[in-house]
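Design job #97: recover the sequence.
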């Protein structure tokens, strides 16, 4: 029998196959042997190893390139950033060297001998003449301009750092031109300022000295200082300098202090007193120099003539001043109230209140008899001469009419008629 059948009918050959090896039960089948390609060159395995090394080397080179590229990007970024920062700093530095403003009003700057660049920078910055202290110092040192000379310079906010440094290096030989005004007061007149278009009283002595470069402390100390001049021979002890800062234009050296400036003014005013023989002429009117000066200050505030544009108008104005002086001198001698509106306005300025007729102040000649304690303004030369040589007559009243003319009267009745006739508008203000 060649074979037998399994239960399912499958037939097996009972003859053994000696050429087939049967793997042990459970062993994985052995892979068939790979045919050898006769065309394959010898050493293929070595070639595979060499290719792997080449790939590894290529990867290392690639990593180095990427790393280098990354550092190049970082370097370029840093350089761009630094360039932007440097450009911004240079722009800032350039801006700080420009003038602070267009203001051409000069300020006095004093450099003491041996002052450092930092000290000078601090001084300029405190007076708002430079934008930045550090920029100023850097400019001085970069440009080798450390030889700043001691002295006083008049510097305006409109000057650049370069202008300021150049002038300080060459030594300042500045002079000051200061103009005081007849009718001006030591301190700003609030009432007068309120009537001006600018809202600022530019005629006050303090304002003018401040514009000349002096600080408020320097000015206040100059107001309180003692001065050697015959002008103050009969000035009451403890009284202010009101009325003594004579209206004129003066030239001062750059290093002149506020006290020096006022001393020059007082010396000049005394020359005016001497030239016009005011001491003797005031005496002829029964007045001391101080009393004559006080009445002249009231006349000046009632009617100023120094700024009249023509000789004719100035002379006509001066004749009115003489008439006004005659009225005040007559009332003073009769122990009457002077009744001047400008005195209660001055009283209000000193008290810092709105002017009113009945203000309780020794300066208010509408309320108190006699002269004010001090002059109320600086008289001009014409008003001084008017008091020294008043108009003839016995008038006791005057008004400034709506038409710009002055009307005088001997009696109260005549005065009231003048008001009704010539002063409907102006006289209703007070």
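Job complete. Output follows.
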């Amino acid at each position: 029998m060649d074979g037998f059948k399994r239960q399912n009918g499958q037939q097996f050959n009972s003859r053994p196959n000696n050429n087939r090896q049967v793997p042990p039960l459970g062993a994985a089948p052995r892979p068939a042997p790979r045919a050898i390609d006769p065309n394959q060159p010898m050493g293929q395995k070595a070639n595979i190893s060499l290719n792997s090394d080449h790939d590894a080397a290529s990867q290392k080179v690639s990593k180095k390139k990427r790393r280098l590229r990354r550092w190049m990007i970082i370097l370029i970024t840093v350089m761009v950033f630094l360039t932007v920062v440097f450009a911004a700093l240079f722009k800032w530095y350039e801006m700080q060297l420009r003038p602070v403003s267009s203001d051409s009003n000069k300020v006095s700057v004093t450099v003491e001998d041996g002052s450092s660049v930092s000290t000078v920078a601090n001084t300029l910055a405190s007076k708002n003449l430079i934008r930045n202290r550090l920029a100023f110092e850097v400019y001085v040192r970069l440009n080798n301009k450390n030889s700043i000379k001691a002295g006083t310079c008049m510097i305006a906010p409109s000057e650049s750092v370069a202008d300021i440094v150049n002038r300080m290096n060459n030594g300042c030989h500045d002079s000051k031109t200061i103009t005081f005004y007849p009718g001006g007061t030591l301190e700003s007149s609030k009432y007068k300022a309120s009537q001006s278009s600018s809202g600022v009283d530019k005629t006050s002595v303090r304002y003018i000295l401040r514009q000349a470069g002096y600080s408020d402390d320097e000015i206040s100390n100059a107001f309180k200082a003692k001065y050697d001049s015959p002008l103050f021979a009969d000035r009451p002890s403890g009284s202010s300098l009101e009325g003594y800062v004579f209206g004129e234009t003066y030239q001062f050296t750059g290093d002149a202090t506020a006290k020096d400036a006022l001393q020059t003014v007082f010396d000049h005013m005394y020359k005016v007193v001497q030239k016009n023989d005011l001491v003797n002429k005031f005496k002829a009117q029964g007045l001391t120099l101080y009393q004559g000066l006080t009445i002249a200050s009231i006349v000046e505030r009632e009617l100023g003539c120094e700024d009249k544009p023509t000789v004719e108008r100035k002379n006509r104005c001066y004749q009115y001043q003489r008439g006004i002086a005659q009225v005040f001198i007559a009332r003073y001698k009769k122990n009457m109230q002077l009744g001047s509106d400008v005195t209660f306005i001055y009283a209000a300025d000193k008290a810092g209140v709105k002017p009113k007729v009945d203000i309780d102040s020794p300066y208010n000649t509408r309320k108190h008899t006699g002269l004010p304690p001090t002059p109320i303004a600086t008289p001009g030369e014409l008003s001084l001469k008017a008091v020294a040589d008043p108009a003839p007559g016995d008038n006791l009243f005057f008004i400034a009419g709506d038409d710009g003319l002055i009307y005088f009267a001997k009696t109260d009745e005549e005065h009231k008629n003048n008001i009704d006739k010539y002063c409907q508008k102006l006289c209703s203000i007070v």
